[in-house]
Amino acid sequence: MTVTSINALKSLSTPQANTIYHVLGYATANDGGGGEFYWDSSDTTSPENGGTIFIASTGRWKRLHDGELNVKWFGAKGDNSINDSPAINKCLDYAKQIFTNGGKLVFPRGRYRISETLNMTNATFWQIIGEGATIAPDSAITAINIQASRSTYTGLNISFESLHYDQINENCVAIWLHKGGSTVNDQVNNTTFECFTIIGAHTGIKSTPNTGLIWQLDFKSIYFDIYEGVSSIQAIGFDIASGFNQGGSTTIRISKCCIQSFIVNRLNSNNEPVFPKGVGYRGYRIYYSTDVYIVDSSYDGYLGATLQLNQNGQIMDIFSKNIHIDGFHCEALTNTLNANNTQAPFRINSTGFLDIKNVVILDSFMNCGGPTAAGAWFLFFGGGVFNFGTYNNNNIGSVDNTPIYIITLSNLLDGDDVTNKRSQINLSNSIQPSQVHLLNRNYNSIHFDSLEVNGLVTAVTGTAPVTILTMPTTRASCMIAVRGFSQIDGTSYFIDYLVISRSRTSGIVKIKSLLNDNNSYTSVVNTYSVTSDGNIQLARNISTGFWVTAKVVNMI
Q1: Is residue 57 within 8 Å of 34, Cβ to Cβ?
Q2: Which of 163, 208, 250, 405 registers the highest number of CB atoms within 10 A of its CB?
Q3: Is residue 503 helix, strand or coil?
């Protein structure tokens, strides 16, 4: 038997036993909320839940289903015309009752307007599936509060685009992990979030310290387009922290995630312009995890204008025991952070192992205060073993003649001088000594892998001092190897190994020769010196031209 709607089903005065009733829709035909029902005359006590059980005159109407739940069964329309929060929350309440051993919760394609937070709590072994669906808050609220174990969240987009610019603030959070939690029993663990977009939120994915535990989380293929609105707090993509001194493995994996804010000239649903503040947003802030993996992800500025980086750790701010970054892209940025104040867009604290490779920064600039300042992209501290691999800095320039460093190494953190932390830093041949900035680092060892001066040789043709290697202007000591070949006869050569020591207190430089070897030019005397700005210079006692290659063997 066929009826048009749930109300039509409930109004039947003489239901027939042993009969399947086909309902065309929840409110109207083909609205997605219909299905097959039967009349249970023996059940007179089950409460009506708004989706799978409805009270009849002398019994209950019950929906035939295989355990999967659909929010449209509970009256959600998904056409952005009504507030779908009551219907979705009815569905969630029922899911918590029957999904004791897991289940699938489906959001069919559509735009679901909500006015209150959707609480997906106690979601153990849940599959939350958005079939091209979007959750659209109509006010500054947290869209989804999730507390999940061994669950998946897939394809359910979240958008705050319907809000006016002055409605957007730090309360606009797309997904909050165990919001309102207070004990270690409030957890999000062994859960995967994948294949969805977050548009217009101030904060993409958030957890706060000491509100619960987070561990073994995977974030895959998530696109963030975030902005601040009227908030004085910078917008952020990932803002994840746990607490309670949790032990064991607390692994966070992020792959193929893109955080950006390309909202210039965008219009909201009222056809009004929406503009960001232009001071930038934060990317990846992850605290108190034992292992962090960030792979094939990005942080990008605006189209047509560079994004101003003005806050420490604005691209990445990571405190973890072990950190692995492989494949990361940045573009259209202006770094205004001064490395002398232990500030950089990538602020990374590792007490165990740090491995970074395949980082690309394109079309970006330094603007840190002129030639006496120091601007760096990465700040490392914490006392671990640091490996820094391939790095590409195409088209990076300075708009104010600020020295461009790639890495700053420091013991200082927010004014705290931790003098006994030791680090071993291994740098690939993509990093020059002149690109490493040593600041308040009393215990460290830096190893350069087969490093040569710009990959070229320097022509030394006369007796006047010639710069053969540019070192950091900070007070570092190093060992270098220098090799020269005659421009006239390549079989004539010299090889020198030198130790250059520089006092960290007085800045006095001393040079000691460890090894001298030469062929054919026994009368040649090589004299090395270090200029006040850190350049290693070579002077020779004869004018015969030599091609000279210099590389850093070690730096301390």
Answers
A1: no
A2: 405
A3: coil
Show Cβ contacts of residue 35 under 8 Å, excluding neighbours closer than 6 positions. Answer: 22, 23, 63, 64, 65, 73
Identify residue 269 by its one-letter amino acid code: S
DSSP string of 57-77, one letter each residue: SSSEEEE--SS-EEGGGGT--
What pLDDT band is residue 146 in, cutting at 50, 70 and 90? Answer: very high
Region 165-180: mean pLDDT is 92
Cβ–Cβ < 8 Å for 167, 139 = yes
> Counting beta carbons within 10 angstroms of the beta carbon of residue 363, is it exposed (0 to 12), middle (13 to 18) or buried (19 or more)?
middle
Q: Which region, left, alpha or beta, applies to residue 24 given φ > 0 means left and ψ of -120 to 50 means alpha?
A: alpha
Please report which helix (H) or strand (E) contains residue 287, including its range. strand 282-300
How does pLDDT run across 513-556, given as a tens digit for each residue?
888 887 776 677 888 988 877 788 898 888 878 888 887 777 77
67: region left, alpha or beta (phi > 0 left; psi from -120 to 50 alpha): left
- Burial status of residue 91 (CB atoms within 10 A of its CB: 0-12, 13-18, 19 or more): buried
Overall size of the chain counted in residues: 556
Within 13 Å of residue 443, how many CA atoms lie on the same side as its CB? 11
Residue 456 has pLDDT above 50, yes or no: no
Considering the chain, what percentage of its residues have pLDDT values greater than 90? Answer: 45
Between the alpha carbon of residue 508 and those of residues 121, 465, 529, 530, the distances in Å are: 63, 19, 12, 10
| Three-class DSSP category at 291 | strand
What H or E segment, with its residue span, contains residue 97?
Answer: helix 85-98
In whole numbers, what is the pLDDT of the chain averaged over residues?
Answer: 85
pLDDT, tens only, 130-143: 999 999 999 999 99
* pLDDT above 90 for 405: no
Q: List, in sequence order, every residue forming a beta bridge with 529; answer none if it has no partner.
A: 537
Count Cβ neighbours within 10 Å for each residue of 217-240 and write b for 16 or more, e otherwise.
bbbbbbbbbbbbbebeebbbbbbb
* Amino acid, single-letter form, for residue 448: F
Please check whether residue 159 is in contact with residue 136, taking contact to mean a CB–CB distance below 8 angstroms: yes
Phi first, then psi, for residue 30 (nearest 5°) are: 65, 25
Average pLDDT, integer, range 477-496: 80
Strands (E) in 53-165, as ranges, are: 53-55, 60-63, 69-70, 103-107, 110-114, 118-124, 126-130, 133-137, 142-149, 152-154, 157-159
**Angstrom distance (rounded) from CA 158 to CA 178:** 18
Q: Please, which residues have CB within 8 angstroms of residue 438's CB and are 6 or more apart in sequence?
A: 408, 409, 410, 444, 472, 474, 475, 476, 555
